[in-house]
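Lecture notes, continued. The same structure-token format from the folding unit now serves as the input rather than the output. Read the line below as a description of shape only.
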């Protein structure tokens, strides 16, 4: 989305991150989903691109996918050999850049995580300068991944993102410099909204009212800002009534239906027992059917509320 307005209000943060990376520190960007961690990381890496000898970028969220991706990039950078990746003899001695990944992908995929780890770690340990590994998401790791990253930390510089601090990943955090990605301040949100509505040609009757609405509802999370802007982008004109409606809808979606649902469930179940106690068969049957229907519908009700 930053293709429409660019990365706004993060200059200082990007400068900080670049400085830490240049110092050789392991860094973790922390902040809730949608706050802009990936965008900041991308901007910092773009700024550094000329300065880093070896940069490995991982996007895959699956453990295996990450390892295979790492092997691919290390092969292309000649940090690991075809032999270490157990590729057929015809690839041995070939520069990594000339190995056609499509041809070898399935073979690397077939390696176990353990074999991949045992190939990757010594290869990283051997390289003269520490490669920088940017891994988009370090929020939740399997025990295998955890062991892998801990082993890698001495031989590579790891830059990652996480949306929360999970206890299981604590040992990694200890080794990393933490940089918090904070909500965007109102003046930056204002800029984003103005640029976006200008680019999309949305007409707004009362821009100030609209902007203050976005500032309030988004709580500074860029993804929330864009969700609202995209929604508005479907309209030609946003008048005051529309903004009021938006506020109304936002209010409803946060209403908690849980207590009402619980009380309804209790009523239906008690109907059955009252029917049983008083010998009222109709009540008993209706209570039973009601409970079955309730359980079926509850599934959908909760789905709706969670949205
Ligand atoms: N400072 C910013 N200015 C403009 N757009 C931004 C900014 N930060 C994030 N975005 C956009 O908001 C969306 C969510 O950001 P992202 O980096 O994916 O969040 P995260 O990685 O923290 O979940 C993306 O479309 C991104 O381009
Ligand atoms: Mg992200």
């Amino acid at each position: 989305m930053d293709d429409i307005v660019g990365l706004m209000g993060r200059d200082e943060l990007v400068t900080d991150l670049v400085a830490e990376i240049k110092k050789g520190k392991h860094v973790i960007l922390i902040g809730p989903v949608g706050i802009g961690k990936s965008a900041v990381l991308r901007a910092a890496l773009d700024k550094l691109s000329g300065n880093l000898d070896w940069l490995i970028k991982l996007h895959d969220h699956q453990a295996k996918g990450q390892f295979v991706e790492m092997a691919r990039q290390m092969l292309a950078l000649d940090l690991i050999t075809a032999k270490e990746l157990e590729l057929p003899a015809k690839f041995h001695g070939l520069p990594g850049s000339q190995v056609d990944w499509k041809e070898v992908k399935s073979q690397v995929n077939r390696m176990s995580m353990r074999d991949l780890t045992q190939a990757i770690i010594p290869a990283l340990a051997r390289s003269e300068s520490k490669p920088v590994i940017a891994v988009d998401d370090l929020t939740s790791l399997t025990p295998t991944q955890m062991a892998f990253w801990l082993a890698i930390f001495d031989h590579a510089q790891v830059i990652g993102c996480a949306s929360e601090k999970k206890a299981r990943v604590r040992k990694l955090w200890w080794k990393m410099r933490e940089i918090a990605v904070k909500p965007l301040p109102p003046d930056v949100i204002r800029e984003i909204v103005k640029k976006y509505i200008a680019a999309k040609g949305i007409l707004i009757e009362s821009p100030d009212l609209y902007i203050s609405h976005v500032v309030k509802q988004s709580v500074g999370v860029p993804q929330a800002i864009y969700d609202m802007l995209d929604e508005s982008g479907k309209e030609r004109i946003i008048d005051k009534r529309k903004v009021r409606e938006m506020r109304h809808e936002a209010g409803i979606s946060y209403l908690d239906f849980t207590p009402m649902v619980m009380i309804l469930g209790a009523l239906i179940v008690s109907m059955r027992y009252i029917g049983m106690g008083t010998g009222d068969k109709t009540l008993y049957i209706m209570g039973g059917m009601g409970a079955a229907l309730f359980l079926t519908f509850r599934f959908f009700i909760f789905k709706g509320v969670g949205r």
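Point for the exam: The chain has three domains: 2-180, 186-253, 258-306.
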